[in-house]
Amino acid sequence: MRKRSFLMAALALTLVSCGVYGPKGNDTGGIIPWSPENEQIARDIAQSNCSQYNRYAVITTIHREYGDYISYLCRWYPPPGARQHQS
């Protein structure tokens, strides 16, 4: 129950902060429109998408310019050195 409420809060933040042209993604990865606010929560947005497919988000590129994107991949295994979250 706690995990579900966290995911719902993350989804609400995603919808509020990304505007009309929000994040796009699937089971292999996706993009998030760049803004200073989105850059701060990009990992949470990406993980929210990747966790639907039981995968781990890895941010690959950040282009710090309005109109550009933050891109990420969904990997089968957590990235080396990543913290494991306990449920």
Quick structural summary:
This protein is an alpha+beta fold. The chain contains 2 helices and 4 strands; from the N terminus they run αββαββ.
Q: Could you characterize the architecture of this molecule?
A:
This protein has 87 residues and is α+β, with helices and mostly antiparallel strands. It has one domain (2-75). It is 37% helix and 24% strand. It has helices at residues 2-18, 36-50; strands at 24-25, 29-33, 56-62, 69-75. Strands 1-2-4-3 form a four-stranded antiparallel sheet, with helices on one face. Helix 1 (2-18) crosses helix 2. The chain is globular, with a radius of gyration of 13 Å.
Overall body shape: globular
Q: Spans of 5+ residues with little confidence (pLDDT < 50)?
A: none
Number of strands: 4
How many domains comprise the coordinates? 1
Helical content stands at 25-40%
Structural class: alpha+beta
**Topology order in helix (H) and strand (E) letters:** HEEHEE
End-to-end separation: 11 Å
Q: Give a short account of the largest sheet.
A: 4 strands, antiparallel
C-alpha-based Rg, rounded = 13 Å
Question: Total helix count?
Answer: 2
- Give me the oligomer status: single chain
> Quick check: average pLDDT?
81
Strand order of the largest sheet: 1-2-4-3
The fraction of residues assigned to DSSP E strands is 15-25%
